[in-house]
Amino acid sequence: MTAEIIVVTSGKGGVGKTTTSASLATGLAMAGKKVAVIDFDVGLRNLDLIMGCERRVVYDFVNVVHGEATLKQSLIKDKRYENLFVLAASQTRDKDALTQEGVEKVLDSLSEEGFDYVICDSPAGIEKGAHLAMYFADKAVVVVNPEVSSVRDSDRILGLLASKTRRAERGEGQVTQHLLLTRYNPARVAIGEMLSVTDVEDILGIKVVGVIPESENVLTASNNGVPVIVDTASPAGQAYSDTVARILGEERPLRFIDVPKKGFLQRVFGG
Amino acid sequence: MGILDFLKRRPEPTATVARERLRIIVAQERSSRGAPDYLPMMRNELLEVIKKYVHVDIEAININLERDSGHEILELSVTLPDGKAKSDATNATTAN
């Protein structure tokens, strides 16, 4: 049994890749899967903070690739879910510290260790780190904001996924592409200030696998070092749960894409 | 939204502007995806050569790359200014 490799990528920075990687990995672990989530952003480690394990990083991804530590020593066990592990990025090395062969070896070892899923948290950009994060992927979650530069960059990334991956090079079929729309604000969409779900789907020619509403809970969660999906009361957490279920093959309707209905008095007097 | 909102003039929603701009740029970038990197440079050099003989603008040169099964067609078309030949097209086929 080989692990399924899912890359979380976007091209543009700051759209929610790490937030998504953390919640996706945690959500799959909540569904009982054995999951490893790897930070590919060498030099700018951040996944450890979002996962809340920053003080427990001893060895990192680069150490494993260079044989300076074993995989077992480097995987950080999540404090909430015992079937969830984090592999941190190196904070001191440069981005050339990762090699294709090295990454492949780590991914193969994770398969041998019985992992069901490996989530690769890609750095921004389309350079080496981003290339390595997507190269071995079976599935891709392309994170996009309803904003012009993010949509354009996503289209570029979708093009790279179709050509610059191992699957594409070997003719083993397409990397399954999932589009995840984050920071969605239904109120601004309703008054024509923000691209809608259908706008983004039409422009990119691909359906969304989920829509995560802009939510204050995301910042709260990152402040606390708890992936937002764990906050099951929050809209963002629930939207991530839906997304994970869809990736696992379940059908669920989109939520949080409409403005909550206002009462009669609010409509007359404003507010 | 209040009761007097209909008195305000509504500007064109910016999301519509964003959508149209993205439609155009995404279509344009998709069509040039996978095209060789040398195309813009070749276009400039061709312009220099042509300029020695006729006065043309860079906008007058169009480069199109079309892919069919098994071969690619690189099409260059140069619109010459009035007084000379009306227009001229050069086709070059590269085997693939």
From TrEMBL, chain A:
GO terms for molecular function: ATP binding; ATP hydrolysis activity. It comes from the Bacteria. One of its GO terms (biological process) is division septum assembly. CDD domains: MinD (cd02036). Residues 6-228 form the CobQ/CobB/MinD/ParA nucleotide binding domain. Keywords: ATP-binding, Cell cycle, Cell division, Nucleotide-binding, Septation. ATP binds at K12, G13, G14, V15, G16, K17, T18, T19. One of its GO terms (cellular component) is cytosol. Pfam families: CbiA (PF01656). InterPro entries: CobQ/CobB/MinD/ParA_Nub-bd_dom, MinD, MinD_FleN, P-loop_NTPase, ParA/MinD_ATPase. The keyword Cell cycle applies. Interacts with MinC and FtsZ. Belongs to the ParA family. MinD subfamily. ATPase required for the correct placement of the division site. Cell division inhibitors MinC and MinD act in concert to form an inhibitor capable of blocking formation of the polar Z ring septums. Rapidly oscillates between the poles of the cell to destabilize FtsZ filaments that have formed before they mature into polar Z rings. PANTHER family: SEPTUM SITE-DETERMINING PROTEIN MIND HOMOLOG, CHLOROPLASTIC (PTHR43384:SF6), SEPTUM SITE-DETERMINING PROTEIN MIND HOMOLOG, CHLOROPLASTIC-RELATED (PTHR43384). This is Septum site-determining protein MinD.
TrEMBL record, chain B:
Gene3D superfamilies: Cell division topological specificity factor MinE. One of its GO terms (molecular function) is identical protein binding. InterPro entries: MinE, MinE_sf. GO terms for biological process: cell division; regulation of division septum assembly. Keywords: Cell cycle, Cell division. Transmembrane segments: none annotated. HAMAP family: MinE (MF_00262). Belongs to the MinE family. Prevents the cell division inhibition by proteins MinC and MinD at internal division sites while permitting inhibition at polar sites. This ensures cell division at the proper site by restricting the formation of a division septum at the midpoint of the long axis of the cell. This is Cell division topological specificity factor. It comes from Rhodanobacter fulvus Jip2. The lineage of its organism: Bacteria, Pseudomonadati, Pseudomonadota, Gammaproteobacteria, Lysobacterales. The gene is minE.
